Every structure is written in C-alpha cells, then in structure tokens.
Amino acid sequence: MKKLIIFFVYCFLLLFLNGCSNIEKEEKKVEMIKSNKNIENGKEIYFAGGCFWGIEKLFQSIDGVLDAESGYANGKEDIIPNYERVLVGDTGYRETVKVVYNEEEVSLEQLLKAFFYVIDPTVEKRQGNDIGDQYQTGIYFVDENSKEIVTKFVEEEKQKHDKFVVEIEPLSRFFTAEEYHQDYLYKNPNGYCHIVPKTFDEINDVIKNVPKLSKYNKPSDKELKNNLTELQYNVTQNGATEHAFTGEYWDFFEKGIYVDITTGEPLFSSLDKYNSSCGWPSFSAPISDENIIFKEDKSYGMDRTEVKSKTGDAHLGHIFYNEPESPNGIRYCINSASLKFIPYNEMEEKGYGEWKKIFEE
C-alpha cells in the first residue's frame, strides 16, 4: 500500500512540476512579447480575423513578429470604441490585431499565408461561433508597398473561392483594446478561441516556404518600345552603350536610389555612387545582390563581365575590379539610360519606402 501511495504522490509531483514549468514558459513568452512593444524599425500590418484573442496569439507564435496587439480598426470616425460599445454592432469597428514584424525574418507574404490559413474568407461578419459586425474579416495596410503585396496575394487567394468577402483597405484608424484583452490566451491558456490550438505550434512550418511576390515584372517588348526612348531601348535590350560624359547621371549625386528603367526594380543607391573620371555613373556596390546578375561578355574582342537586372534582364553595364578611384576597388560602370532616379524625399510616395532605412544605418 505504501508503495502505491508513494507512486501516486510521485505522479502528482511530476504533473505539478510540469504544469508549473509550462506556466513559467507561458509567462516568459508574454514578457518577451511585452518587451518588444514599440519596435521602431518594424513594419506594420493589421488583420481582422474574427475574435482578436486567437488572431493575436497566432501572430505572436510566428518567428519574426515583434509585437501583436489587439484593438479596433476602421470604424465610424465619430465613435471612440471600447469593447462594450463595439459589441452593439453598429460602430463599423472590427476586432483587429496590429502586427509589427521584422521583414528580414518574416515576410508579409508569410503573414498573409498564416492569416488565410485560419479564416474562412467566404463568410461575412462571422468567424467560427462568433457572429457580428465586429467579426468581419479584413486586412488593413499603412503603406504602398504593403498595399501592392496584399493586393497581389489576395488576387491569387480569390481564385480559390467562389465567394470572397475579406475587406482590403488602407488603415484609417486604430484604437488599442482594453488591457485584459492583450495577450489573452497566454494569460488564459484554456480561454475560448475559434482557431484550433495546435495551429499555434505548427504555423511556422506552415508558412516557412511561402515565396515572396515580385512587384517588379518585365513588360512586353511592345510596351518597352512604347515606354522607352530609342537609346534606353537599345541599351537595355540590345546591350548598347551610351557615349561617355553624355548620360543624365554620370556626374549626378543627389540623395536617393536608382531603379531599373524597364521594371522599377531598385538597383543602386547614392550612398554607393562615387565620382569617377570614366564618364559613366559608377557605383561601388548594388543596393542588393539579389537584384542583379552577371554574365560573361566576350564582345568586341574583350573579356568582360556584364551586369544585368535580375527581373528585367536589362543590360546595365559592366563590372571592373582594382579600380583606384573606387572606395573598395570595385566599379559598377552603368549606363544612365538603363536607370531611373528616385529622390529620397519621393521614395515613400513612389512605393520605395522600405529602402529609406539604408540611409539611416
């Protein structure tokens, strides 16, 4: 009998200690989330997916998400929402989660995949057992780049359904929900949620291979001929070279970025542009190694390396090494005719706001 009692006491202690361990883990998770609040360099996107308790924990479970905060979005301008007022159902406010994320660790496309993984986009003003105006699904963006990605992703998602009622709108207003709603499912592990609990554990695996959507696409040859000057077309499509000291940007040093004239894809920045005596725009590095490609060029009896844009496959120029005028010995010798300059103060409005951070590093 003693042995039986000792056995039951041992089992109880194991369960108790394991439970304490789990509670401690949950508390640490909540503290980690809270310590990430107000991350300055994070990107923002807003998701309404039914009851915000589950949507909040969903995004808190994703690696690369810096903060997820429950609140009320895009309701009537003359109403300051609170939970009791929103429950009435005539405010236009949606239970919404503000998601702040590090785009170097998780992409907006991955967050969108996670969102559509847990919602039914075919039902209006309802998710799970929750019915009401405040449970309408929606995605609310705050910048042009996010708008373009959301729009493209949603267009693909729509093809999967006969009916699609998710709101896709710019964020007009957002109010943080009451404190007891924040981190609700971490504070109340057995609390109600319309999302299957195992989803929180598997979501990182679900979204890990989601590809990024390219916002830069190569136009048809007809469009290129219509949109480019003769010189721009010959340089980018036929590998021609403009005359030295004649290009628009060879001695131009304003603050901003240079994009592919054919697609708009970012290629170089003024931070890497230097004064060269060669007569063509010269850069010590591209804005991103992912946006350019190299090809062997043996034309005109020379052995050179051609530089082309990745998406547009446009001829840009050539790369040379051991250049004494270059700060790092590398010269990207680029035709002005293959580039379009975006001034720093216009980058946000023209959809390049994400690249402004390179000037602040």
Describe this structure in words.
- Helix 5 links the parallel strand 6 and strand 7.
- The radius of gyration is 27 Å and the shape is elongated.
- The N terminus is likely disordered.
- Helix 4 crosses helix 5 and helix 4 crosses helix 7.
- The chain has nine helices and 16 strands.
- The strands form four sheets. Strands 7-6-1-3-2-8 form a six-stranded mixed sheet. Strands 11-15-14-13-12 form a five-stranded antiparallel sheet. Strands 10-9-16 form a three-stranded antiparallel sheet, with no helix packed on it.
- With 361 residues, it is an alpha+beta fold.
Low-confidence stretches: 1-38
Terminal Cα span: 70 Å
Looking at this structure, what is the CATH superfamily of the largest domain?
Peptide methionine sulphoxide reductase MsrA
Mean pLDDT: 88
What level of helicity do the residues show? 25-40%
Count of separate structural domains: 2
Number of strands: 16
Per CATH, which architecture of the largest domain? Answer: 2-Layer Sandwich
Radius of gyration: 27 Å
Keywords:
361 residues, alpha+beta, Peptide Methionine Sulfoxide Reductase, Chain A, Metal Binding Protein, Guanine Nucleotide Exchange Factor, Chain A, 2 domains, six-stranded mixed beta sheet, five-stranded antiparallel beta sheet, 16 strands, 29% helix, disordered N terminus
